[in-house]
Amino acid sequence: MWPNGNDKFNETMILMSKKMIELSMIILNMLRNSYGIGLDIEEGNIDALFRMMKYSAPMSNEPVGNISSHTDRNFITLLCQNEVEGLLFKTSDDGEWVKVNPDPGSFIVLVGDALRVWSNGRVHAPPHMVMTCGEKERLSCGLFLCPKGDQVVEPCHDLVDDEHPPLFKSFIFLDYLHYASENAFRADTVLDSFAGI
Ligand SMILES: O=C(O)CCC(=O)C(=O)O
Ligand SMILES: [Fe+2]
């Protein structure tokens, strides 16, 4: 059983997760630069979860729901997947559901709730879900960059002023995770009910 006895696989997964953490940090820094401000998210205050997901082939042409609509709770999620489509996300403009065209050579970047709070609502954390159909299994792997559980999540002070009042209250990340898991049935609006002002 992995990791025992599968050293090569182990090594590849550790390398992959390290590279995905690096890429997530680069993206966070690009965001900071685009606002011309210092990023008060330090590496020591961040956790990363690497997860591999397998959706078995539904063997039907009717789409089958695998993961229902939700926003991710973390700062930023990087996803890569095989060629089987299934991920859909909701746009901020008109709330349309859009299919993600799978490209095994690229990463999908999703903003999560913690980054939406940090940016004081400037970046959209899209509700997304997974629905598959057909005869092939879908494989994806995700790197979820999160605040550590004891971290305070709040709008970045440089992004709050008279014209941009805070849209969210400060909270401890772990408290939010608990609240979100107790309110999982409204997984894509739970941030607003927990911390929205
Ligand atoms: O498998 C995917 O592409 C997405 C999975 C997902 O949304 C999640 O694990 O939060
Ligand atoms: Fe997700």
UniProtKB/TrEMBL annotation:
Species this chain originates from: Dioscorea zingiberensis
SUPFAM superfamilies the record matches: Clavaminate synthase-like
The protein's name in its UniProt record: Fe2OG dioxygenase domain-containing protein
InterPro entries: IPNS-like_FE2OG_OXY (IPR044861), IPNS-like_sf (IPR027443), Iron_ascorbate_oxido_reductase (IPR050231), Oxoglu/Fe-dep_dioxygenase_dom (IPR005123)
Pfam families: 2OG-FeII_Oxy
PROSITE patterns the UniProt entry points to: FE2OG_OXY (PS51471)
Domain Fe2OG dioxygenase residue range list: 45-147
